[in-house]
């Protein structure tokens, strides 16, 4: 099983810190954001990791290395110029292989248990799988009151109200990306809504701690959280 960490973001709203440091290496509770993700992924059983990077990406490689000290094996997808979220996934597909993979953003700080997505990935790999993707959703934070997508009683993602917020945690099968051209800057959404409209995306609501760090204020809130030393936090603003 492989997981990809999206780490190519420039982090414009965290400047000037991110003028000399990739956003993924910004620290919260003494560790870089991306290191928290690596630790939790490995704890959840995801040990084959793919990380894309662009701005100052060599610093990420220098810090995490091969992943051996975490009990993981890390492969890097070097973009040079950031390809956005969808473009980054397409570029990394050769490293991700032919089985369903977990996709997370480097800049979320969360207590989500990634082991819960292991059986989801296995289900997506089934020959007659009912879905091509699985999205983790959260209650709408203050900065995003309108939400992104719905979730029906059968656990299928919809575009119907009431809407929830995409948590930047998902599982995809590579077949969903078939035919997409590499090297093109593209975002996961609104492209991802095509599979939603086709009824091919399952989902779940996560009510635990989740923090999306996009600004210095978000980082300060996370640092003030009294559960230091654990990847828990509240709700920050979008990346």
Report on the structure:
- By secondary structure, the chain is of the alpha/beta class.
- It has one domain: Spore Coat Polysaccharide Biosynthesis Protein SpsA, Chain A (Alpha-Beta Complex).
- 24% of the residues lie in helices and 23% in strands.
- The protein has seven helices and 13 strands.
- The strands form four sheets. The chain has a seven-stranded mixed β-sheet with strand order 5-4-1-6-11-8-12. Strands 2-3 form a two-stranded antiparallel ribbon.
- It is globular, with a radius of gyration of 17 Å.
- Mean pLDDT is 90; it is low at 232-239.
Would you spell out the secondary-structure blueprint of this structure?
Layout: E1 2-6, E2 27-28, E3 31-32, H1 33-43, E4 48-53, H2 57-64, E5 73-78, H3 84-96, E6 101-105, E7 108-110, H4 118-124, E8 133-138, E9 150-151, E10 157-158, E11 165-172, H5 188-191, H6 193-197, E12 201-205, E13 210-212, H7 216-224
Parallel strand pairs: 1-4, 1-6, 4-5, 8-12
Antiparallel strand pairs: 2-3, 6-11, 7-13, 8-11, 9-10
Task: Give a short overview.
This protein has helices at 33-43, 57-64, 84-96, 118-124, 188-191, 193-197, 216-224, and strands spanning 2-6, 27-28, 31-32, 48-53, 73-78, 101-105, 108-110, 133-138, 150-151, 157-158, 165-172, 201-205, 210-212. It is an alpha/beta fold. It has one domain: Spore Coat Polysaccharide Biosynthesis Protein SpsA, Chain A (Alpha-Beta Complex).
């Amino acid at each position: 099983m492989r997981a990809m960490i999206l780490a190519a973001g420039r982090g414009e709203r965290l400047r000037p810190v991110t003028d000399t440091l990739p956003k993924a290496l910004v620290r919260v509770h003494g560790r870089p954001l991306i290191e928290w993700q690596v630790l939790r992924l490995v704890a959840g059983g995801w040990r084959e990791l793919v990380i894309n990077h662009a701005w100052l990406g060599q610093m990420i490689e220098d810090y995490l290395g091969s992943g051996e000290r975490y009990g993981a094996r890390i492969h890097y997808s070097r973009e040079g110029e950031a390809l956005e979220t969808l473009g980054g996934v397409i570029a990394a597909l050769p490293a991700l292989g032919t089985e369903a993979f977990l996709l997370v953003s480097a800049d979320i700080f969360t207590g989500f248990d990634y082991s819960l997505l292991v059986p989801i990935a296995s289900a997506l790999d089934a020959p007659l799988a009912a879905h091509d993707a699985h999205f983790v959703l959260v209650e709408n934070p203050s900065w995003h009151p309108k939400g992104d997508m719905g979730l029906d009683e059968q656990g299928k993602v919809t575009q119907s109200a009431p809407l929830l917020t995409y948590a930047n945690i998902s599982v995809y099968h590579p077949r969903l990306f078939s035919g997409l051209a590499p090297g093109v800057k593209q975002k996961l959404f609104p492209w991802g809504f095509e599979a939603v409209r086709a009824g091919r995306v399952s989902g779940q609501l996560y009510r635990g701690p989740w923090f999306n760090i996009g600004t210095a204020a978000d980082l300060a809130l996370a640092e003030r959280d009294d559960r230091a030393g654990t990847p828990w936090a509240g709700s920050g603003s979008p990346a």
